[in-house]
Design brief:
By secondary structure, the protein is of the alpha/beta class. It has one domain (19-385): Alpha-Beta Barrel (TIM Barrel). It contains 15 helices and 17 strands. Strands 7-6-14-13-12-11-10-9-8 form a 9-stranded parallel β-sheet. The protein has a two-stranded antiparallel sheet with strand order 1-2. The protein has a two-stranded antiparallel sheet with strand order 3-17.
């Protein structure tokens, strides 16, 4: 139902994760009985998570550890790792910047050109460890570099921007034709972001194996303020899930809906799946890992844009090992550790065996879900009051 914004404009009400809740069903089961695995093309993941292609989150070592635990890390081929051979030294410098100077100094650091030999080197380092190699390019750069990445052994390609459409138009340059590029690409392609039914459906029709859903929800992203665009994630995911159902009816192909950003806790991830996501992409929760290269700092891919930065370098603090963040054990009670143990327990508590079943869970609008009865936690800043 549309709500009047004024006499000349109306709009739908949209919801974020903090405004919805999952309703337990009449059945419960043991958490050990749940299956949270997911398949991307021919590749099986034990846990349904991608680590965001952000320089404070993913380097080669992180990607290898992520794969060992059961997830998949996306390396940013346009980031520090493929601009500097001594990437760790550059990341150390970034961690020392004052907040007031960080954006300007990072803009300068990212003027260093992308080096093809480093793209090849990073992929080969990941493959040598026996891991799945996954990396991202923007639509503006992918045609220039994707062949050398595939030749080096890249397994999964991510084409990612703030907003990506299947119908980009330009009067100044030839745009990337996703409907031609993706079917001809010899490896699985994930594409995004998007935040609406129509854009999700059009991206699915390009032949991508997965669509990234999320415009501006990330911890370090300022797109919603800088550009005034975005859709709260619960609604965006549910709309993309409807597009997936339409596409499945049309073609018989199930395209992955990947909730990208806006999740901090295991409960947020559970809500993303219940709203219709097949898996999630997260950055800031993983930037808190001891293995993350950002030293407790996190920033997005548009933070260093030379003309219109749309992100901030935020301090997330190093909190735990990557394994503890993903699958536990947890030693905090705020939901930020053992994220996928929490997903299993949420599914089991509601009686669902796998992700496909959990997508059918009842979800309600519940604006008081995080505050009801939590006075002391909020006053003392513990548990749900942090």
């Amino acid at each position: 139902m549309d709500i009047d914004i004024g006499k000349g404009k109306s709009g739908r009400r949209a919801y974020g994760f903090d405004e919805v809740s999952i309703v337990p069903s009449r059945r419960t089961r043991d958490a050990e009985d749940t299956d949270i695995s997911v398949k991307i093309g021919k590749y099986d993941l034990k846990i349904p998570v991608l680590a965001s292609a952000m320089d404070g989150v993913v380097d080669v070592g992180f990607a290898i550890e992520m794969n060992r635990i059961g997830g998949l890390a996306v390396l940013n081929f346009e980031g520090i790792q493929c601009r500097y051979d001594n990437a760790d030294e550059i990341l150390e410098k970034i961690s020392k910047f004052q907040d007031s100077e960080a954006t300007r100094k990072m803009q300068k650091i990212y003027t260093e050109p992308i080096k093809e030999e480093l793209v090849v080197k990073r992929i080969k380092q990941i493959k040598k460890a026996g891991c799945i190699a996954c990396g991202s390019f923007t639509p503006q750069k992918v045609e220039k570099y994707y062949r050398i990445a595939i030749d080096a052994g890249l397994d999964i390609l991510v084409i990612q921007g703030t907003v990506v459409s299947a119908e980009h138009v330009s009067e100044v340059r030839a745009p990337l034709d996703l409907k031609k590029f993706i079917p001809e690409c010899p490896i699985p392609v994930i594409v995004g972001g998007c935040a609406s039914f129509s854009t999700s459906l059009h991206l699915m029709r390009t032949g991508a194996v997965g669509v990234l859903v999320g415009v501006g929800p990330g911890e370090a992203c300022t797109t919603r303020q800088v550009l005034g665009i975005g859709v709260p994630q619960a609604t965006a995911i549910a709309d993309a899930a409807a597009a997936r159902a339409r596409h499945l009816d049309e073609t018989g192909d199930h395209i992955l809906v990947i909730a990208d950003g806006g999740m901090r806790t295991g409960g947020d991830i559970a809500k993303a799946i219940a709203c219709g996501a097949d898996l999630v992409m997260i950055g800031s929760p993983l930037s808190r890992a001891k293995e993350a290269p950002g030293r407790g700092f996190h920033w997005g891919m548009a933070t260093f844009h030379p003309e219109l930065p749309r992100g901030a370098r935020v301090k997330t603090e190093v909190a735990a090992k990557l394994e503890e963040i993903l699958v536990g054990p947890a030693f905090e009670n705020d939901g930020t550790l053992n994220l996928f143990g929490a997903l299993r327990t949420s599914m089991a508590t509601c009686g669902y065996k796998n992700i496909k079943e959990f997508q059918k869970a009842e979800v309600i609008v519940a604006p008081s879900i995080k505050t009801e009865g939590k006075f002391h936690q909020r006053m003392q800043k513990v548990g749900m009051g942090k």
